[in-house]
From TrEMBL, chain A:
InterPro entries: Cyclin-like_dom, Cyclin-like_sf, Cyclin/Ssn8, Cyclin_C_2, Cyclin_N. CDD domains: CYCLIN_CCNC_rpt1, CYCLIN_CCNC_rpt2. PANTHER family: CYCLIN (PTHR10026). GO terms for cellular component: mediator complex; nucleus. SUPFAM superfamilies: Cyclin-like (SSF47954). This is Cyclin-like domain-containing protein. Residues 46-144, 157-236 form the Cyclin-like domain. Keywords: Activator, Cyclin, Nucleus, Repressor, Transcription, Transcription regulation. GO terms for molecular function: cyclin-dependent protein serine/threonine kinase regulator activity. It is found in: Nucleus. GO terms for biological process: positive regulation of transcription by RNA polymerase II. It comes from Trichoplax adhaerens. Belongs to the cyclin family. Cyclin C subfamily.
Automatic annotation (TrEMBL), chain B:
It comes from Trichoplax adhaerens. PROSITE patterns: PROTEIN_KINASE_ATP, PROTEIN_KINASE_DOM, PROTEIN_KINASE_TYR. The keyword Lipid biosynthesis does not apply. It comes from the Eukaryota. Pfam families: Pkinase. This is Cell division protein kinase 5. GO terms for molecular function: ATP binding; cyclin-dependent protein serine/threonine kinase activity.
Length: 271, 293
């Protein structure tokens, strides 16, 4: 599916602008700031990464799962389905869409429990609270909300092509690759075509490694303002991460999005 | 869910039962594929999911349209555009005689759908007359993408229960695990011949060994000269050495151009088989008509 981003559902339906995203989060913005929503998203993107790592999934599957997660909450409140339920559901759906073989149910629930135990017990106690039937029900809501657009394009492949032009590609590639991974902490993946994100991550890597790339970027026939805007957002993320203490803030944020009981969808979802 | 009424069962897909149904809101006739969901197990079955997400991206006149997906009680309904029949039933109804212009048109449309899939890096992997639909206007639609895949991903061989042997390419039969678009071309070539022979299957093998024997009898047993690397694939077993038959006996009703195209599609060495795009450029299709017009 790699060849035709411009004809894909990703391009036609799921490149959102800032106003659309804010409109979709209207309800959440009544009790959370934009900054707080960003931090919650980052927290669960990391949750998805940890779960994916434990299940030994490829980076691309993890990235797809994070995009599902973000797409869902770009149209629904964080209170519609508990993110702790949706995050593993995204992994499950992405693993099927990306053809990485069937994950056994028992192994899946075990992995959820282990992630919570090992990394998140201070937030969620020592057990993963949802059972498989609830996750499977949630899977369908997710499929429906995504309007069956399960094929997601990522910046990794374009990056591999672009980096070929650079002499110092051995130094640049790991750095730019990490920047792509980190970019999933933000809404960048909802807002820009993958090739722009790939270029911005390459640009960021050049800045970090003090590699002069002015000429190369100047010769591209892309919207440089757009490109630099994405770079700016990635650099801003790195600035924030220098001082951000997640554990100090996250507990109170999670309390704010807690559901009345049990944390299942509340019927307000989808009509 | 309420707005669709099942009219009649029209078949069994690779997974799930297919019904003809009417949408009461619009009056439109659709095909409903009912997929059972066993909530103890994996949730939405992965091949149903593959089909849904691929058809969401593939929009082409020769590929069946996905309309909707509906969640019912322990089942999933996939709503497709309705087509009157599949190619197998169409052939059966022809009673051994299919007009050359229809053979040409159907093969052309099939290749157009396939070229589009391949341009999206999708292999169908299960091209059979049961998975090709024919509308009342003579339009051909590729369906049943439950086994379709992105290419380049190594996979185990098809299990015999899932796919009819008759359309399987020799490289897959010999155990090659890395496929590319050439496997769909082989299947299409088989169907091209089947259509030209009035609906008579070209290579009706009983099992894998028999299937290979039938293929080698017609196209000759391959060797390193015509197919570099084949001895590695054939090393576990002895195959009788056959010479290729005259193509005129294989597809007697095709004209010379048709025979030439058929041979380009049925090259044993997958790397030398023509692509869907190349096949469509072939002189055989000059002046081809769409559908029955």
């Amino acid at each position: 599916m790699a060849a035709n981003f411009w004809k894909s559902s990703h391009y036609s339906q799921w490149v959102l602008d800032r106003q659309e995203i804010l409109a979709g989060r209207e309800e959440d913005l009544s009790y959370l700031s934009e900054d707080e929503i960003f931090k919650i998203h980052m927290f669960f993107a990391n949750f998805i990464r940890h779960l994916g790592d434990l299940l030994k999934l490829r980076q691309q599957v993890i990235a797809t799962a994070i995009v599902y997660f973000k797409r869902f909450y770009s149209r629904n409140s964080l209170k519609s389905i508990a993110p702790l339920l949706l995050a593993p559901t995204c992994i499950l759906l992405a693993s099927k869409a990306e053809e990485c073989g069937i994950i056994n149910t028992g192994r899946f629930i075990n992995a959820c429990t282990n992630v919570v135990k090992q990394k998140y017990s201070s937030y969620f106690g020592s057990d993963y609270p949802y059972k498989m039937p609830v996750i499977l029900e949630c899977e369908f809501f997710l499929l429906e909300l995504l309007d069956c657009s399960l094929i997601v394009f990522h910046p990794y492949r374009p990056l591999l092509q672009f980096v070929e032009d650079f002499e110092k590609k051995d130094a640049l590639l790991p750095c730019a690759w990490r920047a792509i991974n980190d970019s999933y902490n933000t809404d960048i993946c909802l807002m820009y075509p993958p090739y722009i994100i790939a270029l911005a991550c390459l640009h960021t890597a050049c800045i970090i490694q003090s590699i002069d790339c002015t000429q190369w970027f100047a010769e591209l026939s892309v919207d440089l303002d757009l490109l630099f805007e994405v770079t700016r957002q990635i650099v801003a993320l790195y600035e924030l991460l220098k001082t951000y203490e997640e554990s100090a803030e996250m507990k109170s944020l999670l309390d704010k999005i807690a559901l009345p009981k049990g944390g299942r969808y509340d019927g307000k979802l989808m009509k | 869910m309420e707005s669709y009424e099942k009219l009649v069962k029209i078949g069994e897909g690779t997974y799930g039962t297919v019904y003809k149904a009417v949408n009461h809101d619009t009056g439109e006739i659709v095909a409903l594929k009912k997929v059972r969901i066993d909530d103890e197990n994996e949730g939405i079955p992965s091949f149903a999911l593959r089909e849904i997400c691929l058809l969401k991206e593939l929009k082409h006149k020769n590929i069946v349209m996905l309309y909707d997906v509906i969640h019912g009680n322990k089942e999933l309904m996939i709503v497709f555009e309705y087509c009157d029949q599949d190619l197998k039933r169409y052939c059966d109804a022809c009673q051994g005689k299919i007009d050359p212009s229809i053979v040409q048109s159907f093969t052309n449309q099939l290749l157009q759908g396939l070229a589009y899939c391949h341009s999206h890096h999708i292999l169908h992997r299960d091209i059979t007359p049961q998975n090709i639909l024919v509308t009342g206007n003579g339009d051909i639609k590729l369906a049943d993408f439950g086994l379709a895949r992105n290419f380049g991903i190594p996979v185990k061989s098809f299990s015999a229960e899932v796919v009819t042997l008759w359309y399987r390419s020799p490289d897959v039969l010999l155990g090659a695990t890395l496929y590319d678009t050439s496997i769909d071309i082989w299947s299409t070539g088989c169907i091209f011949a089947e259509l030209s022979n009035g609906g008579q299957p070209l290579l009706p093998g009983k099992d894998v060994a028999d299937q290979l024997k039938i293929i080698f009898k017609i196209f000759g047993t391959p060797n390193e000269q015509i197919w570099p690397g084949v001895s590695q694939l054939m090393k576990d077993k002895d195959y009788p050495s056959y010479n290729a038959m005259s193509i005129l006996h294989v597809v007697p009703n095709l004209n010379q151009l048709g025979c030439d195209l058929f041979q380009l599609m049925m090259v044993l060495d997958p790397s030398k088989r023509c692509t869907a795009e190349q096949a469509l450029q072939h002189a055989y299709f000059k002046g081809v008509s769409e559908g029955y017009t």
